[in-house]
């Protein structure tokens, strides 16, 4: 490797490589930019492919090893799907850039080409998160939930070969890999709230590495930064480290930021929702996320989450 090259730490999955190559292209397009090289790093999420995400504790499952390499100086920056990144970063790291957000919605894919509403009762639907499982049960309690792991192309192939009647995946990942053809419908955020920061690519660097940060700061997208700051502040206030059945979406309109969030029981029978708005600045976005989180907690979200964790018997992370 060139000693002056910017080294990007990334997983080797198709989606992770697309995202890393996309960031590399943006860096190379800047006048006077240094060479850029990719460094493939295996994470716990890549090695434990049969473990449901909620059983893995849900924090840093796809990011910890990459961020460790960043701290140790093996790489200069790390590219993540921001929804995988813990809301609390190591003090040595900074979330230097968030790229413009792609479609934040979840996509519904069915073998028969029918919508979620038209899927026959008892059909097997593959999902990979507690959030999707909960909102699926809320929308269609008569369907059967099935665990779904593997990279995005693998999940789509498992649907095609008949392992599932339908699956739910992030629309952004499917679009980036040009796999939108099998999508039957996009799930409305008002009914099927997306994961925090879904659709946003985040780039981490060492907090004091000015030589790298100078190339990353121009990539930061204002609207993505505002929305993700609100959503991540909300999750930070609520989560306690493990996956929670929570969906949230912040949107920027002129000079205002609006945040909607929902926590849902895994059986779909109970949910708690809250929303709020505030000025479109990063400080106000963080305050908004905390305020909406407090509203959720005041309405019983904490008790709902604790009950679900107890039923799942999730080990403490």
Number of domains: 3
Q: Could you name the CATH topology of the largest domain?
A: D-Maltodextrin-Binding Protein, domain 2
CATH architecture of the largest domain: 3-Layer(aba) Sandwich
Q: What is the rounded distance between the termini?
A: 36 Å
Q: What count of helical segments does DSSP give?
A: 10
Largest sheet: 5 strands, mixed
What's the β-strand tally? 13
Order of helices and strands: EHEHHEEEEHEHEHEEHHEEEHH
Strand order of the largest sheet: 2-1-3-10-4
CATH superfamily heading of the largest domain:
Periplasmic binding protein-like II
The proportion of strand residues reads 15-25%
Describe the structure.
Helix content is 33%, strand content 24%. The chain has helices at 14-28, 44-47, 64-72, 130-139, 152-160, 171-176, 210-216, 222-238, 282-298, 301-312, and strands at residues 6-10, 36-40, 77-81, 93-98, 106-110, 124-127, 144-147, 166-170, 183-187, 201-206, 246-253, 256-264, 271-279. The chain is globular and about 60 Å long. The chain starts with 5 loop residues before the first strand and ends in a 5-residue tail after the last helix. Helix 8 (222-238) runs parallel beside helix 9. The chain has a 5-stranded mixed β-sheet, with helices on both faces. It is built from 10 helices and 13 strands. The mean pLDDT is 91. By secondary structure, the chain is α/β, with parallel strands linked by helices. It folds into 3 domains: 1-99 and 200-220, Periplasmic binding protein-like II (D-Maltodextrin-Binding Protein, domain 2, 3-Layer(aba) Sandwich), CATH 3.40.190.10; 106-187, 3-Layer(aba) Sandwich (D-Maltodextrin-Binding Protein, domain 2); 222-317, 2-Layer Sandwich (Double Stranded RNA Binding Domain), CATH 3.30.160.40. Helix 4 (130-139) links the parallel strand 6 (124-127) and strand 7 (144-147).
């Amino acid at each position: 490797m060139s000693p002056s090259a910017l080294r990007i730490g990334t997983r080797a999955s198709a989606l992770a490589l697309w995202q890393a190559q996309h960031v590399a292209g943006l860096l190379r397009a800047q006048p006077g930019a240094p060479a850029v090289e990719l460094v493939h790093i295996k994470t716990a999420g890549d090695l434990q492919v049969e473990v449901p995400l909620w059983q893995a504790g849900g924090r840093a499952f796809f990011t910890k090893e990459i961020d460790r390499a960043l701290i140790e100086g093996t790489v200069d920056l790390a590219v993540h799907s921001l929804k995988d990144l813990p809301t609390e970063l190591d003090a040595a790291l900074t979330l230097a850039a968030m790229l413009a957000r792609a479609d934040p919605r979840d996509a519904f894919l069915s073998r028969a080409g029918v919508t979620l509403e038209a899927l026959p009762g008892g059909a097997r639907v593959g999902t990979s998160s507690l959030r999707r499982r909960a909102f699926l049960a809320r929308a269609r309690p008569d369907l059967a939930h099935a665990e779904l792991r593997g990279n995005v192309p693998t999940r789509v192939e498992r649907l095609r070969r008949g392992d599932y009647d339908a699956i739910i995946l992030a629309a952004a990942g499917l679009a980036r890999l040009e796999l939108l053809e099998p999508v039957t419908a996009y799930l409305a955020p008002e009914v099927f709230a997306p994961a925090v920061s879904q659709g946003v690519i985040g780039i981490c660097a060492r907090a004091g590495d000015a030589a790298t940060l100078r190339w990353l700061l121009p990539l930061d997208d204002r609207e993505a930064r505002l929305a993700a700051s609100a959503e991540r502040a909300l999750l930070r206030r609520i989560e306690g480290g493990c996956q929670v059945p929570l969906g949230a979406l912040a949107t920027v309109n002129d000079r205002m930021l609006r945040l909607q969030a929902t926590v849902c029981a895994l059986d779909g029978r109970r949910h708690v929702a809250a929303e709020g708005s505030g000025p479109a600045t990063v400080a106000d976005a963080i305050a908004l996320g905390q305020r909406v989180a407090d509203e959720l907690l005041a309405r019983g979200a904490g008790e709902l989450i604790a009950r679900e964790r107890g039923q799942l018997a999730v080990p403490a992370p």
